[in-house]
Design brief:
The structure is a single chain. This protein is an alpha+beta fold. The chain is built from three helices and eleven strands; from the N terminus they run E-E-H-H-E-E-E-E-H-E-E-E-E-E. It folds into two domains: 43 residues, no CATH class; 127 residues, Double Stranded RNA Binding Domain (2-Layer Sandwich), CATH 3.30.160.690. It is globular. The longest helix is centred in the first third of the chain and has 23 residues. The strands form three sheets. Strands 3-6-10-9-8-7 form a six-stranded antiparallel beta sheet, with helices on one face. It has a three-stranded antiparallel beta sheet with strand order 4-5-11, covered by helices on one side.
Amino acid sequence: MIRTTLAVGTLVVALFCGGCALLSPEYAAARASANAEMQVFVETSRQRTLFEAKRELKAVEDEVLSLTPRDSALEFRQTKEERNLFGCRGDEDLHSWPFTSNVTFDADTVDVIQLMNDIGDHFADIEGWSVSPGQPEGKTEVIYLKRSSDDMLIAVSARGESGTMRIAGFSGCFLLKNYHRSREF
């Protein structure tokens, strides 16, 4: 729909097209590409099961932890294996599984901020992963590791003076119909 309005001697033309490609061929191509990518993402997510998503996420968690000096850890805690699921991409049938691990090192011998940055460098070198810094919260630094193929997201945070590192994440999306929020998997 095209609407014209006369405003102080100037003709103003506004286009209202709700996702149509009237703006430019470049816009139309970008929009079509984004729609195609989203369709592939949703179809891929609908083929993944909860157990595959958990296995993939645990493998990445293990990879992150393998980059830490576990023999120098004073304490290691993981959240329980069964957790409530989170919604994914606004689709009622797509979900994501969360996890959290906390590792405490002797702050005098392990620089957890540097360790966190080394983990980020490791993942930055892996195709399909992106690394971005988060907003520091007080004395806590954070980086985000995101896998582009399925939106798996890992947050690695470090608190230098306490020697604490937290690794928290969400699996890639997977299909689970009729999920009730009180159920844990």
